[in-house]
Design brief:
12 helices, two-stranded antiparallel ribbon, 4 strands, disordered C terminus
Amino acid sequence: MLLKPKIDWHGTISKAVVMLLVFFLATAAQGEWLLVVVYLGKDYLRAWLHTTDSSLNGTLFTAKTVPLTSVTAVLEYYRLQNLHMYLALAITTSFIMFYGMAGGFQWYFYIKRRHKAYEWKCQPDRWLTLDNERHEIMLGSFNMLLGSTGSGFVSCYIMNGGKCSLYTSVSEVGWTYLFLSAFALFMYNEAVSYYLHRLFHYPYLYRKIHKVHHRYGSPTAFSTVAMHPFEFTTYQVVLALPAFTVPLHAGKYFHCNFGFNSLFFDNLHGTLRKKDRVYGEDVFGGKGKQAGLTDAKSE
């Protein structure tokens, strides 16, 4: 009689929680939440902030119609009325999400369940030094400030009549386009995450930029956005492009497993980690080397 394999519900739930945490931390970093909120509730926010489209009697404000002699006039010309309100909302909420979720995760797992690390941690015997913990929090905080400031500017611009390809009514594009575009957007995010991540693992970019993120050999939730600001900004800009052009997972091994949410592109390009290959910080290319042919520091 065949016995049914026992399902590890605790492990499954833990992984699901981690994935959700990473998703919401990434959302907080990118500021997507603010973009969606302000677009869906633009009429209410406009009334609350006294914000309107940058037009007067159907004529767009330009340098010829309005002299740019004050900060207010400059902001209005660039469709950035009430910018301070959007920046305050974006920065405050992003930091609450970042410290709240990452801090809660840190307390529950890394403090309360530290003595049971073998149950939930893939590297139960490795921990960040206090110096690296402080470093990842400071760097992550800087990137959060960078990302939320950008989202504040973009959201303010859109709310004041700036161009954006988001829509709120399915009737504008139809249900077929809605479902196809949702799948296309997911694949776009996967492709961008995979190819940019792999690009940053090329020797020069890895040593100059991406290695900052790999400083944290045993990452925590705060490590999610602890990376070189140039790398962080690159992800934010490229991932945000669809909102303006079309209607609308970090691993423990070096130089492989570049995908974030799925294994599709790793399987497609053969960069999924294999047990019979050797990987290390000095083994580039994503496919490792045969055992015995390299003396690289394996991970």
